[in-house]
Amino acid sequence: MAADNDGEYCEYHEILYETPDKSGKWMQFYPVDEIDVKWERAKDLYRTGKLKGIYAIKRGIKCPRTSPTLQKYFQPLFFYCGPAYKEEEIMQYGKDLLKEMPYHMADTGHMYYKTNEQSETDTRCIGQETNYIYNIKTTPENFDPIPSTNTTDKFIDEINDEIKSKYNVGLNVGKWIQYYAWHDIDAAWENAKKLYRERELEGIVFMKVSTRLGAGEKKNGIICFYCGPADSKEEVERYGHNLIQVICFKKTCHFNTFLFLKLTYIFNDSRSLDVVIYARVPDAINF
Questions:
Q1: With b meaning 16 or more CB within 10 Å and e meaning fewer, what string describes 148-160?
Q2: Beta-carbon neighbour count of residue 12 at 10 Å?
Q3: What whole-number distance in Å separates Cα of residue 88 and Cα of residue 266?
Q4: Could you tell me the pTM of the whole model?
């Protein structure tokens, strides 16, 4: 690892494109227990060319010249773009970045852009009030919550209105359920979101994941993949087979629905589908 102006050390620095002159970077700061998941997502987006205008990304070990609290509990990600004097382009790159890497810090409410020159001279040390030149206001809606650290919601939803309207299954829906060890749930959820947003999960209308609040004292978490019509064994089986192949899920995967009958579909060891029909449960719809 090498010393760096943007953080005491640079853990990873990846450049795939030509570096513009007089550039800078958009900065995002994450809690240390979330940074690994966010860094993996940033690398995947960068390597697949989805970070428009971003020519390099970097993960720092420490936050650059910030408060002791931020230094201790947060680590930075840097997204390089330029030239810095082209404000309209830089602002658009930042807005595009937020679409791919949702981000929000409650205490600042902004994402900031800092020039490389400011990093080298440390603008605050030479009397200037700010050490950035551009900023974009963010809201909680700009942030993808992390399941293992979320203590405000029992479940986190991932719903795309376009996908939902495409399948239009209404209430005749159920869910494939996958169980993950608690230390794997964040990475599994990031992967599921990526595949869902890229339309790789055939038939999946929307998804949910359990959180730290929802799991309580349990040692594992669940991801629910909703699809339908729930009473169509053929379609449910096809969507389930595609799901476990795309997700590369190796454990038991089962499908539950509460409509007028409670149906449970279970993939057995040979990956064929067994069906269990329980007692009629009138007016019980559980999403």
A1: bebeeeebbebee
A2: 14
A3: 53
A4: 0.56
